[in-house]
Amino acid sequence: MRRYMLVVKATPEIEAGTFPDQAFDAEAAKYISELDQAGALVACDRLQPSSHGQRVHYKAGKFTVTDGPFAETKELVAGYCLIRAASLAEAIAWAKKMPFQAGDVDVRPLFELADFPVDPAEQPGGWRDQETAQKAAPPARQPGTQRYLGLLKADRDTEAGVMPSEKALAAMGAFFEEETKSGIILSGEGLQPSAKSARVRFSGKQRMVTDGPFAETKELVAGYAILQFATPAEALAWTKRFVQVDAPGRLNAECQCELRPIVD
Fold first, then answer.
1. Among 4, 50, 113, 196, whose CB has the most other CB atoms within 10 angstroms?
2. pLDDT tens figures, 44-100
3. CA 255 → CA 4, 126, 261, distances in Å?
4. Domain limits at 56?
């Protein structure tokens, strides 16, 4: 079994803050219940419109923070489901059952620890062991916090399947360990390149499947983290630290992350 992220793309209605009607909510609840009963459900959340979000860009020692809303509606993320499936075909089958009448859903496999070859230089207690421990005992949800989804944007290297160096993995592992001790990170993973993914387009009852790769590299997601913060300022401060840590291991030492509140 492998985990997949079903990335629900935004529509103009969702970006305008128009929530689905009760009939859709009932169908969505039925779908999530079916996932759960099949043992396929990991998590499922809806995001607030991008007008509530921010993008943090870091390059050459400089930060740029851009407040939403963002213009490229069709590539924005409106929500996600994390599922377990035996194959991409099975994950696509689950995506096609979503009760949408319009829009797109990308089916993206997640990286598992087994996908990263063991480096002879790895030491006990390194990033691999840290991630294993974090997954075994994730932090609890804290009252009074807001959950956020951090979306790491792709670049040519991530889309080409270039794996991070051991040094970059160690730096990110140390950062995640700090986040875990602080209790702010609930989960997070890298997404495999879109070449290993598929897109389901909804039009009424029709479902059209397109295999990756996808062309809009700068808007694709390369990874995600589900986080909890007491204030928006705290969320932004941690995101700025994240892109600064991640940038040295990225193409042109450049990193961009989109921060979006989750509908709780």
1. 4
2. 999 999 999 999 999 989 999 999 999 876 789 999 999 999 999 999 999 999 999
3. 23, 23, 20
4. 2-112+119-261
